[in-house]
Amino acid sequence: MFTSPLIAAPMAGGTTTAELALAAQGAGAFAFAAGGYKTAGQLAAHIAPLRAAGKDFGVNLFVPRKEPLAPGQAAGLARYRAELAADAAVHGAAVPEVELEQDDPRVQDYWAEKLDLLLEDPVPVVSFTFGLAPAAVVAQLQRAGSRVLASVTGVAEALAAAATGVDALVVQHAGAGGHTAAFLPADGGFATLPDLVAAVRAEVTLPLVGAGGVSGPAGAREALSAGAVAVAIGTALIRTDESGARALHKDALGDPAYTETAMTRAFTGKPARALINSFVRNHTAAAPAAYPEVHFLTAPLRAAASTAQDREMLNLWAGTGWRSARTGPAASVVEGFLQEM
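Predicted structure:
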């Protein structure tokens, strides 16, 4: 299914640039474009260089929330907004009012428009995260000529995804940086990515991509030995020249002052793994499960912190293998993995 055993994972929010995807692809990896947080027009522009390159690539989309916020979630969001006021004042930012209808295109992450784009002008591979695309959507994309992947974090999710008719699964371990793909309660607490891959391999026959916490070629080899056909890397590419991550983020990954990561809803309302900074310490306990509303709530704070060069208020996404992330060309990182895999 893939042209390489190594995949450059899609990192939304600007980290995966077209330049990063092309550099990884040119060095021998299979590249994914990140469709999250983009309108259909922005996605079309993002993948145009990959289309022009003439090689297989993938596009990742967020599956939107199906139900409006529950009253308790809405109340928690209001409390959280009040809690953030002091942080916002530090850099002169305002905490916005966030009252979005369930059918607001931003809540839906422009889902319908992006599906229309990918059905009208298909790409080789489409992957989904944060939930399952309906079986009818999977079938539509397959009829258009795309292979379809679902992201899962456990055996129950893998079985549910397989039932929708997808062609393969991205099996994401909790050690992954950024957002978890989880959409069902945890069903295993697997210690390592190979353990998770092996457990899913025992229950489904679909091709598996191992992802999460892969800090080097040795970890990649172990995931392949456990039954994956390919391994995805994300954090390993954040510090590269072609990455669109903020310089503050790149530098933090190389700073020994940061010693741990944690899962937190503080920045977006959805669990995501980040370096532990002041924002994570101060707000993880109170942050409600309200995605994407919390994302929009904290966006002005993060922008102001970036302008002020204050990384203690930034979402410093990092997998558990972040210490191995290196600066330099993305091609060097990919080639280093492939040479030893």
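Summary: The two ends are 18 Å apart (CA to CA).
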